[in-house]
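Quiz preparation item.
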């Protein structure tokens, strides 16, 4: 009788551990999804601000059609990207197009002084900071989730219930990895 009680106790303990592991995997998966949703919100905000910035600049930059076209194309690709990897690549391309745009803006001092342009640029800068924070949070959540999926004994439960590792939101372009150059000579 004592062995039977010990056996029942071990089975109950095993079931509780199994349930705990499963619930923690679900919780982490939901945190990853929530973190991605936060990035998505900020990316949408960014995508909505870019046309305002471009429209404000068009009046001043009449001869920069290719610059505007590259931003429009990159924005469209970023908005239609689906997976994390596709979004990362598309956003890197959009960052590159925006960097070129801001380089061209340097040639238009009257545009740089325009209050509407400055206001939209400040909103965009604020949004970029929010995207960076959301991306860091997302990647942290992915790290926790992927660790849980790959570590024993939770890897057994993860395999049984088909939990898959999540993809990091990583920088793609070399320009994003470069350290910005500061020049106070001008």
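Solution:
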């Amino acid at each position: 009788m004592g062995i039977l009680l010990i056996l029942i106790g071990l089975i109950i303990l095993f079931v509780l551990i199994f349930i705990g592991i499963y619930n923690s995997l679900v919780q982490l998966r939901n945190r990853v999804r929530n973190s991605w949703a936060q990035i998505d919100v900020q990316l949408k905000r960014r995508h909505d601000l870019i046309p305002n910035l471009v429209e404000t600049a068009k009046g001043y930059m009449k001869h920069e059609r290719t610059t505007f076209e590259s931003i429009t194309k990159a924005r469209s690709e970023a908005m239609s990207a689906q997976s994390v990897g596709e979004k990362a690549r598309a956003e890197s391309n959009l960052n590159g197009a925006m960097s070129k745009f801001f380089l061209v803006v340097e040639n238009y001092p009257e545009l740089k002084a325009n209050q509407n342009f400055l206001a939209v640029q400040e909103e965009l800068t604020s949004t970029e900071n929010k995207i960076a924070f959301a991306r860091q949070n997302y990647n942290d959540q992915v790290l926790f989730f992927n660790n849980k999926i790959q570590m024993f004994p939770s890897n057994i439960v993860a395999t049984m219930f088909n939990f898959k590792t999540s993809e990091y939101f990583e920088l793609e372009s070399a320009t994003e990895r470069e350290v910005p150059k500061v020049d106070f000579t001008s």
